[in-house]
Predict the structure.
Amino acid sequence: MKDIRNISDFLLEINVEELPASYVRPALDRLKNAFIEKLRAKHIGHGDIAVFGTAGTLICFIKGMQMKQEELSQEISGPPKKIAFDEDNNPTPQAIGFAKNQGVEVKDLKTKSTPKGEYVFIVKKVKTRLTKEVISEIVPEIIKSMNFPKTMKWDDSGIRFARPIEAIMILLGKENIKVKIGNAPIKTAKGLSAGSYLKKLEKICLLDQGRRKSEIEKMINSAQKKLGLDEYIDKNLLEETNFLVKSPVLMVGEFDQKFLQVPKDVLAASMSKYQRIFTVSKNKELVNKFIAVLDGKGRNLAKMRKVYGNILEARLKDSLFFYNDDVKKPLSEHTAKLKDLIFHKDLGSMFEKIQRLEALSSFICERLGVGAAEKEDIKRAAYLCKSDLVTQMVGEFPSLQGVMGMEYSLKSGEKESVARAIKEHYLPKGLDDNLPETTQGAILAISDRIDNVVGLLGAGIDVKGSFDPFGIRRNSLGLIQIIKHKGFRIDLISLIDKAIELYISSDRRSDGYDRRSELKGKFKLPPEKLKNKIINYIKERLEFLTPETRPLELKQAVFASGSADIVDTFARVKALSEISSEKYFLKAAKVCERTSNILKGARGEKTGMVDQGLLKEDLEKEVWKAYSANSKRIKDLIDKEDYKEATKAYADAFFEVLHKFFDNVFVNAEDMLLRSNRLAMMQAINKLYTNDVADLAMLPQIAVE
Amino acid sequence: MKKLSFQDVIEKLNKFWSARGCLIVEPLDTEVGAGTFHPATFFKSLGKEPWRVAYVQPSRRPCDGRYADNPLRLQHYYQYQVIIKPTVPDIRKIYIDSLKSLGIDLKAHEVRFVEDDWESPTLGASGLGWEVWLDSLEITQFTYFQQVAGIELGLVPCEITYGLERICMFIQEKFNLFELEWHNGVTYGDMHRQHEIEYSRYNFEEADIEMYSRMFESFEKEANRLCDKGLVYPAYNFVLKTSHAFNVLDARGAISQNERPRYIARVRGLAKRCADLYLPR
């Protein structure tokens, strides 16, 4: 039972000079997890843990923290009972010595039976400590262990944090606990308990990030409604704004109509980047208004509105300057400049990249049998798709890559479908982003991603944990998503082969000098190893994108089989998940399991073709008959991708007959010829299913009935 | 109350920072892109001696010229630079006080510290800090230096760089910097408009690429030669000259994306040489 008098609420407040907005949420999560972990390790009981934060304040509030560690007892084993006590149950010198060493009386010795026999032991209480002592140790550890993308130092204490720490306060109930964290001053809340201190803070500002965010959202939406505008909020800007303000106040402002001639995306990028203000639209058309979220009431809104509006117009004027300069020549005339733009220091220029994209996308077109008109579009789009990178506008707003490519290509008189493919080839930008809709955009997007993954992994760049600066993970995930979304039936392995080949052949200079030997130094791995690495990498991502299966291992079983056709892989996972509790599925799995076990035992043995002449026992002839009679039908079903029927046919064909066979025939016969013939038969049955559907032997122990 | 002129703002800031222990020094007489290049910041950030200084630095960014056509951009403008080394815990409060000393009403207006990790690749300098926004107008760059010339700093200096034109725009409520009052009815435009127009033309259209390329090479050579002789300050002056030559070549579109990092690395290498020579003193 918890003693209510022995618990108190706890609060840690870290005041820090404004953190980057994107740091706050992850920092709060880490703070919470660190407390959960440390308190568990230190055996301090507690109730709910809540974290609150703004750019300048991080708070962890824990309800009902126990004032001291839980009483713990520890068992310490001593000598075996038969050594510690004689036949009359009197303690021997060994028992007395053990008790003395442990500081207990002989009468406190207990015995228990263990697999090794009966042993003497004692139960020792571990000394408990007061929570406040433990807290003053763990808080500095927690604060020092908070990781940030970048940290700094600001004084000579040696402490590092994302920005200088201004003050620390710790309250356990009403007691202020002092800790030393660098030179940070310790704040006190004289007389206030943790709970009432939190209430006081909440009166000053909207401390709870969740409530604050929904409040901002509500304010924006109701302003939009009142003005008859679309109810739309840029989600990323909202998240950032939430950590720029503590007490949100809304301001609607205006700018000169004439700036609406600036392309919509440029307007939005400029407003978001330079002023963190929201665009507003009516019937999806931007209007010359903006919404700013300010911090704190009592501002001179009339003057602020004027400042915001004027700054915005000056910025847009600059954007127009860039735009007008960029469109002085058609987009295709920017392309040559890509020769001077490095893709990656070991992988050549962006110009070489677009040449590879042209070849790779035309390879995909051939594989998929894409029509001549679309193929022509893709070729043109591949040539133009990176050209906007050397325009001034994308130099100023890197987030507009692709968007400007589309805008400028339309201005230059390119086809709509080409322009769209240029924009779409950057999609999806993240896991939840839109996918390319047009065939042209999708094929170009696939080509670009394969080229990135192959090149970057080849150059020896890797993904470490969450550190993926070149977006290898994002590229692979996007690749799989696009192929799945478009239902493109393409063998990834041939695609990877082609991409590797293009990197190698692009190194052949026009004068015929073959630089392939130099390339060995560039690609850190030989092509075969690289290829395996890429395939494994993509398979891992594929697994990440596949919904959970029951049993869990089913996914792995599917990935272990079949070609690298992504659409087919998803189809197999789906089909088998749906039948995984059917009896015939379990029977099929059993067939895989038994054949696989017997083959495992025969590792190293030659298992070639089955020789009918060597079939001796009736039962083995029967098994072979079942194989001969059913294998074609099963293969046809697999070819038709009817995996449910194939599984059923496989179970029907082999389960019963194999059951009898294993009960009565000894596969590993003395006679080498007989044995390897039987193993060959087992292999044929096993591969019939596991090669192309799933290696069901990977499922946990299967019991039919 | 009469609104502060451009000249008044400089005077007020000098007074404010002088009262807080800063030496008020004069601008460097060589073309630089920012106040950070002044030896009073570059060299004095290194080493273990405390240092407080403030000064105006005319700065040139050839790429930012807009032929006097943009209300917010100039290729030549004025920075007000403050270095407090080591930084002090209430430095941000002091900075806010400096804004108040200019008569800016911070109850009616909002100051925002927006993440911006500053970096000068040519000087090998970097730090963490913010852009300071006054009602969405960026008026100051506020940085805790961590490195200069690639050297990790022992005493962390706080660098406060005010954009003087921006602050005056706010104070005088003029959103075109050419309309700012320099003093006594004379405008910033009177002083600088023609200068901006001519230099925009020069930087973008007229600067002799071949001459600047040659100059870059000569300045680099001279800087190295002077380093060999242990003449740190003259050597550093030639480093600054290479940096400006690079900026002009860049504005002329004479530097490809490929060459750019190499140019920057060359300047950085020279700056590093100077810092290494300076430090043991």
Notes: The longest strand of chain A covers residues 285-295.
